[in-house]
Amino acid sequence: MKKLHFIIFFLLLQTLFGQESFIESKLTAGYKGDFIPELKNENEDLNFLVLGDFGRVGEYYQKEVAKQLGNAALMLDSEFIVTVGDNFYPNGVASIYDEHWHASFNNIYTHPSLYIDWYAALGNHDHRGNIDAQIAYSDISRRWNMPAPYYSKTFELNDGKKLLLVVMDTSPFIQSYQGKNEKYPHLESQNAEEQKKWLIETLSTKDESIAWKVVVGHHPLYSGGKRKEAKDTKDFESQFADLFDSLKVDAYICGHEHDLQIIKPKGRFTTQFLSGGGSETRPAGNREGTIFSKAEPGFMSFTVNGDFMEIQTIKALKNSAEILHTMHLKKK
């Protein structure tokens, strides 16, 4: 028993000194920013951060979240960032020249560690503007990536296995939005059935090297927050919860609710991670299957290898960050 305690103590010291060495090396190199010492990626596994419901010209908590997002990306050596939609409030962008690109994105997310790939999804507020402009901006910005309203990308993990990231456009599946062409000018041209067919085909891959299937969309399957009993939420659950389970989707990442939630109802295969605290926050709550729920500004971190996924929920404060919750998924 004493030997076991010694080994644990030694490993803790090794981790602590490793973090101190990392921080010291950055300071020596001239870095003048902040750190989040509690965050670490010891095995240099694939890491990505998830941000949602954020574009508000720096208002509410957007600047605080942006600052800590950059600090987290530095500590975790993040490879990319995922946005779950509502990238620009209240009415999306009008064009690639819209002031929102600078006021809500380029001039807010300025930390050098955030100049990595951003894989963006569309939200309902984005559909109030010109979604083609968000797609076209991919050819202007080095970091903004939205090749189409829905798309997929595969990432190689350290052990040779892969993660499949599938980005949906969920608004065409929300019945209450249909027929409102003035409010959602591009929605009529989106074919929901065609997208669903593509989704099934993409997630039905026969590639045995894919260890994890992760779907990104704006609208939640479940919520303990404002939209807990909303018809749109219930309808979306009925369309996709069983489907995701049958296709062995490990994680569904979403937003729409302005809080941070993790939900896995009893009997379900897919775990939902809701990261909608990118600027404004609203009261959160629980429902059956709630694992975590907080009405806080912040984001989520995913660290992944072929066998293991660590998800950390991070609260953003003005001059610091706090890890609110840590969860582990093991490959089934």
UniProtKB/TrEMBL annotation:
<dbReference type="InterPro" id="IPR029052">
    <property type="entry name" value="Metallo-depent_PP-like"/>
</dbReference>
<dbReference type="GO" id="GO:0016787">
    <property type="term" value="F:hydrolase activity"/>
</dbReference>
<feature type="domain" description="Calcineurin-like phosphoesterase">
    <location>
        <begin position="47"/>
        <end position="259"/>
    </location>
</feature>
<dbReference type="InterPro" id="IPR004843">
    <property type="entry name" value="Calcineurin-like_PHP"/>
</dbReference>
<protein>
    <submittedName>
        <fullName>Acid phosphatase</fullName>
    </submittedName>
</protein>
<keyword id="KW-0732">Signal</keyword>
<dbReference type="Pfam" id="PF00149">
    <property type="entry name" value="Metallophos"/>
</dbReference>
<dbReference type="InterPro" id="IPR051558">
    <property type="entry name" value="Metallophosphoesterase_PAP"/>
</dbReference>
<keyword id="KW-0378">Hydrolase</keyword>
